[in-house]
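cron nightly-structures :: item 1 of 1
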Amino acid sequence: MKETKTFVTQRMEQGLDILVVENDHLCVTIIPMMGGKISSVYNKRFNKEFLWSNTGLELRKNQPGDDYDSNFWGGIDELLPNDLPEQLDGIAYPDHGELWTARLEYKILSNGVAVYGRLPLSGLYYRKTVYLHEDAPKINVEYNIINQSGKCRRFLWKLHAALRIAEGDRLVSGARKAKIVSPGASRFDETGEFPWPTLRGIDASVVPKKGNTMDFFYLYDSPGGNMSLITDNGKYRFSYYYDPLVFPYQWYFASYGQFRGHYTAILEPASAMPANVNEAAKLGQCSVLEADEEVNTVVVIYAGAHQ
């Protein structure tokens, strides 16, 4: 078998350091000054970009406390330590948390890159190391989060991959149950739990044509840790593989035109449910780290042919 070598290159764009990790399979772009955002997952063999980006918004640094929705550029963000603006453990956290606007340090490795830094409000130290598989279009993402605050921290940690979609694409999840996050953010007005994916005779996992609708679901009661979107009439697949003890829930947000005209689906393995972390904490459904405790885990992203 031909040896596949990984290359790491750098460039500057809009005042941002851009790190590009690539081999014969994939080209992956990472932006440390945007919280370690992965802005592109491009499959070289199929000439296919998997991630959605907002063409109406320039790539730029965001400031702590910025509104997320009006600055939603796309790609893969991560939310830490919250989603909704709220006060946790006596600290007022901004919209979608403090990681997505964080200026992280970075280190170029022989086969990938690492981005890292201490989040100033929560006192959580965050490190993400990204490298590529040699024999498949897969990305290994190794995480280390340490509570350096000296106090207990309750939080939400959520992955957030905005993907390109077309009518007929399909979400694949092992979840057996679901709830609508908000009736105002859904094609449906159901308020209770329902068996995923069928609701009122409609397969909610299938992407409809672009119009003026959207969906936002909590998915749970899943025996495994995986979440995928099948695209292009079944040709391609973007998948997350992860430890379900770290991410026991899945959120699925999809705008079919209703949210600012965007047409995208967001896969969101999550450590908490519901969105309000204080409520999740009361239910025992959020991440908790005592002082000096840490979490170490690996997430694998697949972006290639649907086999």
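cron nightly-structures :: done
The longest helix spans residues 277-282.
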